[in-house]
Design brief:
alpha/beta; Histidine-containing Protein, Chain: A; hypothetical protein tt1634; six-stranded mixed sheet; about 25% strand
């Protein structure tokens, strides 16, 4: 009986234990499900549907990829508001951050009389030390301000070309600011003269790599004119300026209007420059030209504040005295007038004169009268030095009755003659006459300044110099467009052919290459792309390679003929750019061609002010652009 009671008690405890275990498991399941559902609902309410929730006993694990670190913390906070934060296990990840965008690489280079400064950010692939070494070489003995930084990012397209061209440009520009960015260079500079401005713009445009956008803003200040010279002639041939100077555009207009009233024809030219002796220059010139016009003929010459008025031979003495008196009383202060009425010369009297002639071939003859042996030796030596020792023939004679200033007049006349391409100078007691042709558009002005300064006031001279463009070594050069047109004319009658399926130029076309080379030697360093094209027969890759090889063959033939080709490139385009239908023999023949294309930088607007200007405290003063034109040449595939 006792055993049965004991077994009953044990069985009761066992059943209770089993029931407790079952109840505990059910409780855990209930807690897991409620925790998981509560946390998931809280995350969904906040839009965090990316998060995954899994409960394991009392622990709640959050997984998934959060968009940002802040969103991950927000998910943990949301879960902690439902269950104890200690029970939350963070198994979440964060999306990888996007790659940081590379910075904008740019540089500013400023050069002036105080030194050279460079500031900006360049990629590490640009050797900073090498760039600074080149900058120091450009600066010479002047100091260099280095404010350049480096970032370890790949160099953008066009950066290296832009940086290299900017340093090349800075070597030629002593006063300039250059702004550099990928594929673009903006240059602002000051030059000493209009000629220097034109020369630099031409050089920089030609030196720019193909595809680089270049903005040029080059300014030329007004030239310094010394002496400040003006000379107006009124004679049987009409009214003309041998030289004209003005200090402002308004003064130039005033002077030209007075000259037009005196009979000047044509557009009229007058140089605006610095060095005017008086702010009343325009008024004095206007009055003197009016006086000359009233006299009817003669010359008026200004050399700074000295005025020489020479009336024509035969002018009535009364008219001369009246006009000169009125002019003397009306001239502004500072100006001094010398007036001269030449005496009538007996036509039967032999001339006392010295004549030097310069032929188009460069031969010089010295004839006429000289005052002594010493002057003859000096004149002969000067002429040989100026024109060449084997080009001078002297046939002068010595006389005693010449003016005391005869040596100065003779040597000044020879110096004036040296500025002509051909012509003559005649020296007489009353005047010096310089006549001839020149290729220098400023020769007449330069000769007038020379004679006015060397002969002095009261000396009469006459300049009859004609500018001829064919004699101008600069203007006579063909323009790039003219070069292209001449090549097109040759190709219209002669054809360059190649051996079949080859890049070798056929022997029958070598004469055409000679003619093209003759033209290009006169064209200078124009930027030229020699393009090769084929028809569509054959594989595309083969056609591309063949067109490249043929374009290169043309370039090599030009080099073999001693044409300067440093600014030329050869590029093949294959069948990509047809100019006719490839379905016919005629069309395919037209598509097999070589094209000569002029390359010019594309226009771009000048950049604004930069940090470098703030550092240096200076800024310099039209973007120039040119468009590409094209010439064509046929060839056989």
């Amino acid at each position: 009986m006792r055993l049965s009671s004991l077994a009953l008690i044990v069985a009761t405890f066992a059943v209770a234990a089993v029931l407790s275990l079952v109840a505990a498991n059910l409780s855990v399941k209930l807690i897991e499900e409620s925790s998981e559902i509560g946390v998931r609902d809280a995350l969904d309410d906040r839009g965090m549907t990316w998060a995954e929730v899994q409960a394991d006993g009392l622990q709640v694990t959050l997984a998934g990829i959060a968009p940002t670190e802040a969103v991950r913390f927000a998910a943990l906070s949301a879960a902690g508001s439902i269950v104890d934060a200690a029970r939350v296990i963070d198994d979440m990840q964060v999306e990888a951050a996007a790659a940081i965008a590379p910075p904008r690489f740019s540089a500013e280079i400023l050069r002036n009389d105080a030194g050279l400064s460079i500031i900006g950010l360049m990629p590490a692939s640009s050797d900073r030390d090498e760039v600074l070494d080149r900058v120091r070489a450009i600066s010479g003995d002047l100091p260099v301000t280095d404010l350049i930084e480096v970032a370890d990012y790949p160099a953008p397209d066009g950066w290296e070309d832009a940086l290299g061209f900017s340093l090349t440009a800075m070597e030629r520009l002593p006063r300039a600011k250059v702004s550099v960015s990928a594929g673009r260079v903006a240059i602002r500079a000051i030059t000493d003269s209009g000629e220097e401005k034109a020369r630099l713009e031409s050089q920089l445009n030609r030196a720019a790599p193909p595809g680089l956008r270049v903005s040029l803003d080059v300014a030329a200040p007004r030239p310094v004119i010394t002496p400040f010279t003006l000379r107006l002639v009124k004679d049987d041939a009409g009214t003309r300026f041998d030289a004209c100077s003005a200090d402002t555009n308004a003064t130039r207009t005033r002077i030209l209007n007075a000259a037009f009233a005196a009979g000047l024809t044509g557009p009229g030219t007058c140089t605006v420059g610095m060095g005017v002796p008086s702010p009343n220059w325009g008024a004095a010139v206007e009055q003197a030209i009016g006086a000359l016009n009233e006299l009817g003929a003669g010359t008026v010459t200004f050399s700074d504040a000295d005025i020489t008025l020479v009336a024509a031979e035969g002018t009535p003495q009364g008219d001369f005295d009246r006009v000169v008196g009125e002019l003397e009383n009306s001239l502004p202060q500072v100006f001094a007038l010398y007036a001269k009425l030449p005496e009538t010369v007996d036509p039967d009297q032999g001339p006392s004169e010295f004549v030097a002639t310069l032929s188009p071939e460069g031969l010089v003859q010295l004839r006429g009268r000289l005052s002594d042996e010493n002057l003859r030796n000096v004149a002969d030596s000067y002429a040989r030095a100026a024109f060449g020792s084997d080009r001078v023939y002297t046939a002068t004679r010595l006389v005693d009755d010449l003016p005391s200033n005869w040596p100065v007049r003779v040597l000044t006349g020879l110096e004036a003659l040296s500025q002509l391409s051909n012509g003559a100078v005649t020296v007489s007691p009353d005047t010096v006459i310089v006549s001839g042709n020149t290729g220098d558009p400023k020769a007449s002005t330069n000769i007038a300044s020379l004679l006015a300064s060397k002969l002095g006031e009261a000396e009469e001279f006459d300049i009859r110099v004609t500018y001829q463009e064919k004699l101008d070594p600069v203007a006579a050069l063909p323009t790039p467009d003219e070069c292209e047109a001449e090549i097109s004319d040759i190709l219209a009658t002669s054809k360059i052919t190649f051996e079949p399926s080859s890049a070798t130029i056929d022997a029958s076309a070598l004469g055409t290459m000679d003619d093209i080379a003759d033209i290009l030697r006169q064209c200078g360093d124009i930027r030229l792309e020699i393009q090769g094209h084929t028809d569509s027969q054959g594989r595309e890759e083969m056609n591309l390679n063949l067109s490249q090889a043929r374009a290169q063959s043309v370039l090599n033939e030009l080099r073999a003929r001693r044409v300067l080709t440093s600014t030329y490139t050869a590029k093949g385009y294959g069948e990509a750019d047809p100019i006719a239908d490839n379905d016919s023999d005629e069309g395919r023949e037209a598509n097999r061609r070589i094209e000569f294309r002029l390359i010019r930088p594309k226009p771009s607007a000048p950049e604004g002010e930069t940090t470098l200007e703030t550092i240096a405290g200076t800024s310099d003063t039209e973007a120039q652009s040119e468009t590409a034109t094209e010439g064509t040449e046929d060839e056989q595939n």
